[in-house]
Write a structure and sequence with these properties.
The complex is a heterodimer of chains A (325) and B (288). Chain A contains 11 helices and 8 strands. With 325 residues, chain A is an alpha/beta fold. Chain A has a single domain, classed as Rossmann fold. In chain A, the strands form 2 sheets. In chain A, strands 2-1-3-4-8-7 form a 6-stranded parallel β-sheet, sandwiched between helices. Chain A has a two-stranded antiparallel sheet with strand order 5-6. In chain A, α1 packs antiparallel against α10, α2 packs across α8 and α5 runs parallel beside α6. Chain A is globular, with a radius of gyration of 19 Å. The model of chain A has no long low-confidence stretch (mean pLDDT 96). Chain B has 2 domains: 137 residues, 3-Layer(aba) Sandwich (Rossmann fold); 128 residues, Rossmann fold, CATH 3.40.50. Chain B is built from 11 helices and 10 strands. A 5-stranded mixed β-sheet of chain B has the order 1-2-4-3-8, sandwiched between helices. In chain B, strands 5-7-6-9-10 form a 5-stranded mixed β-sheet, sandwiched between helices. In chain B, α7 links the parallel β6 and β7. Chain B starts with 21 loop residues before the first helix and ends with a helix. In chain B, 49% of the residues are buried. The N terminus of chain B is likely disordered. Classes of the chains: A alpha/beta (325), B alpha/beta (288). Bound molecules: thiamine diphosphate and magnesium ion. Thiamine diphosphate sits at the interface of chains A and B.
């Protein structure tokens, strides 16, 4: 375990990871009960990434994420109520309920989705960074994407353009070793994703994505480079998803043993064990954290349940900006 | 209708898992076809086919003609299409009408189990690019597989229910909603004929015109957005070919022009539904 000197901080990291874990467990339950529909991609096992990475960003930095973005929005600070309501499709959701699980948006926190076409977010992050660059703002645009996205042309085009124009983009690859059922080695000739940055003369790093403290410090270093105006940075988080790609899949592409092996490195477990060894985490402390999280989730569910649906008459509202037509 | 299951017996050389590189794996399909193979490319859904549009529009659809007929591209591209599963705006597109705009390709929209199998088999004999759009809603349907599956034709629309009062013209996932609407209309004393277009390009206009000349009324049902929809094309061609046979303007039931929203009540409101089809038919038949 790395340095756990700042105990309060470490406990907060644990709390955030647990908050995501429990929120998503509740979501899965609600999905089985038919309250949440469509696709539901959970980040079970990958929580250390959003928890470690997002606090390294300033409040006015931008975030572009994928369909597996519940944790990112939670850590960014979008109220759990608005996220749960979005999963329900209620009008009080963070996107009025129109987006659902894959499409969280929060303009007040510069959270630009929740974009569900693989690699579709990378060029958008480049453009956000271009806007900052041209406006002489020293903001960072952070873009999360999976290992699968690395196979798309948009990944390569975005890295090249961001490097060419020295744009403040933080490319954050959540490498969980699979793109749906396709293992990394079945879709990449070079499985060391961080090395791809070399081709575009971009600095890069790879970090253990199960170790929240390592994620935190590596992301902080990367943010510093980008904010200093030295152009983009590619950071690869090596992680693993414990559950199916979306709610259900046959998981024929991996063995139970492999999943179990990775569960030994569950980020929640790793941090908890470290904190217990130092006497910081006790059953009583954990109980308190869990109870507060359970209360927050129960409140979010109550809120979502009680929230109204958007009226059907509003179906065509916001197709265009008001006043334009 | 079930998604075709490729068996590993065919071998990993012949059934390939690809990286997420739609433009390149569709383009490679074009190249492999030029190189003498007969590739079947599965791009999962129409939503992701957008990343391959350049290869489709600029290469697959041009090379034969542009080369003066020297090269053919016997390529099949399959994909799911359509909305109705609460998967939000980026995963709910119905763009087969767009594809039908493109000359030099064949666009198929199987709506029955027999067509799902038979069209794929028949497409294997086509010398030029064939695009097969399978409405995702159909994967959950069960149906009898007709022996005819081994020899379905790729040029004709099918009359799925004969009738005399109005022609309901549709394709793909909307066929089942339209048939249900026809059943309800029968209860109201309206005898609707239901046409399943099956092939959007080349379009079997003669079958449509025979039907419209008989019923004198037509409603086109299409899950695409109304403006520039395939329904607009069918409607225009009916006007061109059977204007004086019509007793009422051709009506269209299409999707509302919004990105498809996630919540069920809004998604339902955005898409063609049985009630809307029934209502449109009443409006058309009322104009006697
Ligand atoms: C362009 C595109 N092609 C296919 C899909 C279907 N799809 C959704 S997620 C996914 C796997 C993506 O894997 P990865 O980028 O590694 O992200 P992960 O799901 O592992 O977080 C696929 C193939 C899509 N959404 N977009
Ligand atoms: Mg992945």
């Amino acid at each position: 375990m790395p340095n756990l000197v700042d105990h309060d901080h470490s406990l907060e990291l644990l709390r955030q990871m647990l908050r995501i874990r429990r929120f998503e467990e509740k979501s899965a339950e609600l999905y089985s009960g038919g309250k949440i529909r469509g696709f539901l991609h959970l980040a079970n096992g990958e929580e250390a990434i959003s928890v470690g990475a997002i606090p390294a960003l300033a409040p006015d930095d931008a975030i572009v994420a994928t369909y597996r973005e519940h944790g990112h929005a939670l850590v960014r600070g979008t109220p759990m109520r608005a996220l749960m309501a979005e999963l329900y499709g209620k009008s009080t959701g963070c996107a009025r309920g129109r987006g659902g699980s894959m499409h969280f948006f929060d303009a007040s926190r510069r959270f630009y989705g929740g974009l569900a076409i693989v690699a579709g977010g990378l060029p958008v992050a480049v453009g956000l960074a271009l806007a900052d660059h041209l406006s002489h703002r020293s903001r960072v645009s952070a873009c999360f994407f999976g290992d699968g996205a690395v196979a798309e042309g948009e990944f390569h085009e975005s890295l090249n353009l961001a490097a060419l124009w020295k744009l403040p983009v933080l490319f954050l690859c959540e490498n969980n070793l699979y793109a749906m059922g396709t293992a990394l080695a079945r879709h990449q000739s070079q499985i060391d994703i961080a090395r791809k940055a070399d081709a575009y003369a971009i600095p890069a790093d790879a970090v253990d994505g199960m170790d929240v403290l390592a994620v935190e410090s590596a992301t902080q270093r990367a943010v510093d480079v980008v904010r200093a105006g030295q152009g983009p940075f590619l950071l690869e988080y090596r992680t693993y998803r414990f559950r199916a790609h979306s709610m259900y899949d046959a998981e024929l592409y991996r063995t139970k043993e492999e999943v179990e092996r990775w569960k030994q490195r569950d980020p929640v477990r790793l941090l908890s064990e470290g904190l217990r060894a130092q006497g910081v985490l006790t059953d009583a402390v954990l109980d308190k954290l869990e109870t507060a999280i359970a209360d927050e989730i129960a409140d979010a569910v109550t809120f979502a349940e009680a929230s109204p649906w958007e009226p059907v008459e509003d179906l065509t509202k916001d197709v265009y900006t008001p006043g334009k037509v | 209708m079930r998604r075709f299951n490729a068996t590993p017996a065919s071998g990993p050389d012949r059934i390939r898992d690809t990286p997420l590189s739609e433009s390149t794996f569709v383009g490679a399909g074009i190249g492999a076809a030029l190189g003498g193979l007969r590739p079947v490319v599965d791009v999962m859904t129409v939503n992701f086919s957008l990343l391959a549009l350049d290869q489709i529009v600029n290469n697959a659809a041009t090379i034969r003609h542009m080369s003066g007929g020297q090269f053919s591209i016997p390529l099949i591209v399959r994909m799911a299409t359509g909305a109705g599963r609460q998967v939000g705006a980026q995963h709910s597109h119905s763009l087969e009408g767009w594809y039908a705009h493109i000359p030099a390709i064949t666009v198929l929209t199987p709506a029955t189990v027999t067509d799902a199998k038979g069209m794929l088999l028949a497409a294997l004999n086509e010398p030029d690019p064939v695009f097969i759009f399978e409405h995702a809603f159909l994967y959950a349907l069960d149906g009898e597989l007709d022996e005819a599956a081994f020899s379905v034709d790729l040029s004709h629309a099918a009359v799925r229910k004969p009738g005399h009062d109005v022609s309901l013209i549709t394709f793909g996932g909307s066929l089942w909603k339209t048939l249900e609407a026809a059943t309800r209309l029968a209860e109201d004393g309206i005898d609707a004929e239901v046409l399943d277009l099956r092939v959007l390009r080349p379009l079997d206009m003669p079958t449509i015109l025979v039907s419209v000349r008989k019923t004198h009324r037509a409603v086109v049902i299409d899950e695409g957005w109304r403006t520039g929809s395939f329904a607009a094309e069918v409607s225009a061609q009916i006007m061109e070919g059977a204007f004086y046979d019509l007793d009422a303007p051709v009506a269209r039931v299409c999707s509302v022009e919004v990105p498809i929203p996630y919540p069920k009540h809004l998604e339902d409101a955005a898409l063609p539904q049985v009630a809307g089809i029934v209502q449109a038919v009443h409006a058309v038949v009322g104009k006697r």
